[in-house]
Amino acid sequence: MSMAGFLETSLYFLALINPASKVLLLSSAEPPYSRKQLFSISAKSTFIALVILLLLACAGYFVLKKIFHVEIYSLQVAGGTILFLIGLTAVQKGHFYEQNIHGSEDISIVPLAAPLIAGPGTITAAISFSSTAGIELTVLALTVAVMANFVIMLSSLWLGKLLKKLHLIGPLIRITGLVVAAVAVQMVLTGLGQWIVPLLNMKGIK
Questions:
Q1: Could you give the CA distance from residue 139 to residue 105 in angstroms, rounded to a whole number?
Q2: Does residue 24 contact residue 169 with C-beta atoms inside 8 Å?
Q3: How many CA atoms lie within 13 A of 109 on its CB side?
Q4: Exposure check for the chain: N or C terminus, fewer CB within 10 A?
Q5: Rg of the Cα trace of the chain?
Q6: In whole angstroms, what is the distance from residue 24 CA to residue 169 CA?
Q7: What's the CA gap between 37 and 105, in Å, rounded?
Q8: Do residues 106 and 38 lie in contact, with contact meaning Cβ atoms separated by under 8 Å?
Q9: Is 30 in a helix, a strand, or coil?
């Protein structure tokens, strides 16, 4: 496992987790969260999401392949399609979710842990990476990405104020949405390629 590959995979997972959406969610709560509430919500959602992702990274391929008889390329196409719709919504509307959050609500499990951290794109990537790059690399990269997102979530209050002051929330969400959509398209194309190439090779043999 090379350091470059590890860092690349970690950054890929972090992009799929999309910390910008968590910053916007946590900083837009009314009334605003206290530092204690922010830490509690961030820690709880991070722990639950990490457990979900690690379980799927370790056992997801077996469950899909042996129990449901679903190929990885099918998961990539399905997950990429859902992720593309999320990115497209962000580009068109300037948000990843419905912004009706109140400071008194416990959002640590839904929507924070799932689907905002352990979402369709991250889950798909966790399962597909573990089957191709190995479980060890996937687990380490996932852990680093989720913990980096946790640190960013803890900074949500002042980051949100800074972005609002600079009028950067709208552009940031749309740019992030475009990146998410592009990643989703690549995920779909990779899945389709893994399905089509063997079929073409079989036809060529015949």
A1: 31
A2: yes
A3: 1
A4: C
A5: 18
A6: 8
A7: 11
A8: no
A9: strand
Bridge partners of 102, per DSSP, are 30
pTM above 0.85, yes or no: yes
80-114: burial string, b at 16+ Cβ within 10 Å, e else: bebbbebbebbbeebbbeeeebeeeeebbeebbbb
pLDDT digits (tens, 9 = 90+) for 63-74: 998 899 999 999
Rounded-to-integer distance, Cα 37 and Cα 34, Å: 5
Q: Is 158 exposed, middle or buried (0-12, 13-18, 19+ CB in 10 A)?
A: exposed
Distance CA 20, CA 160 (A): 10
Q: What is the pLDDT of residues 160-198, one digit of tens each?
A: 999 889 988 889 889 988 998 999 999 999 999 999 987
Block residue for tokens 């399962």:
127
Sign (positive or negative) of CA dihedral 179, 84, 13, 132: negative
CB 30 within 8 A of CB 103: yes
